[in-house]
Specification:
The complex is a heterodimer. Chain A is about 0% helix and about 50% strand. In chain A, the strands form two sheets. In chain A, strands 2, 4, 5, 6, 9, 10 and 11 form a seven-stranded mixed beta sheet that branches. Chain A has a four-stranded antiparallel beta sheet with strand order 1-3-8-7, with no helix packed on it. Chain A is globular and about 40 Å long. The relative contact order of chain A is 0.33. By secondary structure, chain A is an all-beta fold. In chain A, strand 5 and strand 6 form a beta hairpin. In chain B, strand 5 and strand 6 form a beta hairpin. Chain B is mostly beta strands. Classes of the chains: A mainly beta, B mainly beta. At the A-B interface, strand 4, strand 5, strand 9 and strand 10 of A face strand 5, strand 6, strand 10 and strand 11 of B.
Chain lengths: ~120, ~120
């Protein structure tokens, strides 16, 4: 059983550029979550999908952020016109639905540095 | 509002000592789930335990044990006979309101186990 994978693991970009991250969840998991973690803090929820439907977005997710999960498998998170404040670790997690009770399994994260 | 507080920012112990990591939560829900995750230096969050609000039995898994006390809204984690490999950041998390499954994390406790 392969775990959650994320690509790339590291991304350095200049302010104003667009970036896209990919997450491949555990194959039988129908829920997929994105979190953001800054240094010294716990992860903060950004958005989640059940199958291909995006069901909730945090107010942390500005208009520059967009996430998709076509066909209910992998997901992408795009940040447009990056800002230095976007520098963080972006974590993806997946779980079985279980009415929201299931434990989430996390990927290794994508570390974004905006210069 | 829902909140998780881990008041201990950093703890340092010598190998073989027992250590307890504190977690206090706030929620108005009567049904909720609590989690502990470990984040080693490699960065990937590792699921340790899930506990629902109706089950106040303490749980033991090897050198790990968890004490859930609803009366004090606490879900503390004890490592017995700590080892250097236990060095990591530990996060307590609360399952958010409703069916989303999103996790609300505490700030984390950094545990350093010295040889």
């Amino acid at each position: 059983d392969t775990g959650v994978s994320q690509n790339p693991r590291h991304k350095i970009t200049k302010r104003g550029q667009n970036v896209t991250f990919r997450c491949d969840p555990i194959s039988e998991h129908n829920r997929l979550y994105w979190y953001r973690q800054t240094l010294g803090q716990g992860p903060e929820f950004l958005t989640y999908f059940q199958n291909e439907a995006q069901l909730e977005k945090s107010r942390l997710l500005s208009d520059r952020f967009s996430a998709e999960r076509p066909k209910g498998s992998f997901s992408t998170l795009e940040i447009q016109r990056t800002e230095q404040g976007d520098s963080a670790m972006y974590l993806c997690a997946s779980s079985l639905s279980e009415a929201g009770r299931g434990e989430q399994y996390f990927g290794p994260g994508t570390r974004l540095t905006v210069t | 509002a829902q909140k998780v507080t881990q008041a201990q920012t950093e703890i340092s112990v010598v190998e073989k000592e027992d250590v307890t990591l504190d977690c206090v939560y706030e929620t108005r829900d009567t049904t909720y789930y609590l989690f502990w995750y470990k984040q080693p230096p490699s960065g990937e969050l590792v699921f340790l335990i899930r506990r629902n609000s109706f089950d106040e039995q303490n749980e033991i898994s090897g050198r790990y044990s968890w004490n859930f006390q609803k009366s004090t809204s606490s879900f503390n984690f004890t490592i017995t006979a700590s080892q250097v490999v236990d060095s990591a950041v530990y996060f307590c998390a609360l399952n958010g309101r409703g069916n989303t499954g999103k996790l609300i994390f505490g700030q984390g406790t950094t545990l350093q186990v010295k040889p």
